[in-house]
Amino acid sequence: MTPATGAQEIAELWSAGTPILYLVTAEEERAIALCEAAAATFEARAVVWSAHRGLAEIAPSAKGPSEFLDTLVRLPGPVLAIALDFHEALRDPLVARKLRDLLPRLHGEGRCLAVVAPRLDVPEGLAGEVAVVRLPLPDDVELAALLEAVRAGLAHPSPPQPVAPEGRHRALVAARGLGEAQARRAFTRALRRDAALGPAALAVISEEKKRLLARDLGLELVESPDRPEDVGGLAGFKAWMEERALAFDPDASRFGLPPPRGVLLVGVQGCGKSLAAKAAAARLGVPILRLDLPRVLGASAAAEESLHRALEAAEALAPVALWVDEIEKGFAGSGPGDGADPRAARLLGAFSTWLQERKGPVFVVATANDVSRLPPELLRRGRFDELFFVDLPDPEARREIMALHLRRRGRAPERVDVAALADLCVDFSGAELEQVVVGALHRAYALGRDVETGDLRRVAQDLVPLFRTYEEQIKALREWARGRARVAGRAGAVVDLFRRSEG
User: Fold this and answer.
1) Which of 4, 19, 85, 123 is the most buried (most CB within 10 A)?
2) pLDDT digits over 355-377, tens only?
3) What is the DSSP string of 68-106?
C-alpha cells in the first residue's frame, strides 16, 4: 500500500458511509498522514484527538472520551476525527454505548471516526460498523522517499552528496521489513556512518534491522553457512530440496511452476532438523528468518496482532526462508485434547490461513519433536509441500556425519576407522555423534597427541544415547510416521529401522 493507495482506501470507505475506521498500526504519524491525505481529497478537515492533548486546536479540554464524542458530533461535516489509542476507551461499556447511539449522526452528517491503535480490539456491539484497515509495512517507493528525506535533512543546508545507484538500491533492500520510524532510524545511522551509502552504511542498516526484528517482532535473521553438503544423511530430504530449489529460478514461473511453499520436519531430537532448515535456505539461495513463536504469541492480549506483524515482515523480506522451530510448542492448547484454549485456536487458525494463502516467495521450514501435540490443521495438504520424518541416522549416515565433524575440525576421516565407529554407535543421533568427535578431541588434547580411533571408541562407549531413555517414545514416533510422512533419510534404511523396532 503506497501513501496514495492508502489514502484512497480510507477516502473510499468514508465516502461509502462507513462511520468508524479502525487503522491497525503502531505508526501513528504514518496513519495520521494517510487520514489527512484522504480528507484533502474531499477538501474536508482532519482533526486529531488523544487523551493527553484533547481535540488539538479545536477543543483541547475535551480529553475524556465522552467529551470528545460530544465535540465530534458538533463539528460541521465533513470531518475525519483521528482518535489515538481510542481502543482503550472503547473497553468502557458506557463509551461504547454512547458511540453506538451517535452512529446515525456520524453517518448522516459526513463525520467519520478513525481509531488508530497498535492492535485490533473492537467491542462486539460495534464490530458490524467498523471497517478495519491494516497499514502494511512501507514498500520500496515509500522507503525510497524516506531515504531521500533523511539524506536531505542530514545534509541541510547543503545539498546531499551523490549516491551510486547500486548503493541506494542495496540500502532499500536492506531496509525491507522495517516500519517507517524504524527505517528512518536505520537510514539516519547509516548515513552518519557513510553518506555515500557504501559497505559500512549497509552494515549499519543490516545490524539495525536484526536488532529491531528480534526486539519488536520475534524474528531473527540467522547467518548460517550450512549447505546441503554440510548435512550428514537425510538423503531423501536433500534430493527433494534439489528439485524444489529449481522452482525459484526465473524460468520456473514461465513454465507454470509456483514457488515452493515449505516443508514440515518431524522426528527425533538431535537428528538434524534445525540444520536441515538452514541448509534448505542456503540451497534456495535466500536468507533465513527464525520465528520465535512462543515469544511472539506469549500471554499477551496482542498476540494475534504480533503474529500478523511478524508474518507481514517475513513477506516484505521475500524471497526468504521462514524457520519455525518446535512449532507444536507455539500452538500448545489449541486442540480439544489440550483444553481447547479459544485464544490458541484463533492464533492457530490465523497462522494456518496465512500458510495457505500467503503471497510471495516465503519458504516455510517448520520443525516438530512431539507429534502428539502437533495440531492436525498443520498436517493438511496445502499448508506445506511435504511432510518429512527425520529418524536416527542409519549406518551410512552415521559414517557421513562422523566424517563431516572430523573434517570441520581439521582432521582427515581416513586416519580413523569411521566405519567401525559407525557400527559401534548404533541408535546415536547426529548431535550425539558430534559429541563423540568433540569428546575424543578433548581426550587427545589432554594426552598431548592427535586424536585416534581409540579415543573416539572410548567416548562412544561411555556415552548413553537418548534412545536408551526414550526408546518407547521414539518407537511410537516411528509408528506414527509410517504412512503419514515421507522419509528424510534413505528409503531402504527405514525398513531396517522398523524391523529393529518390532524385534
Assistant:
1) 19
2) 888 877 889 999 988 887 888 88
3) HHHHHHHSPSSEEEEEETHHHHTTSHHHHHHHHHHHHHH
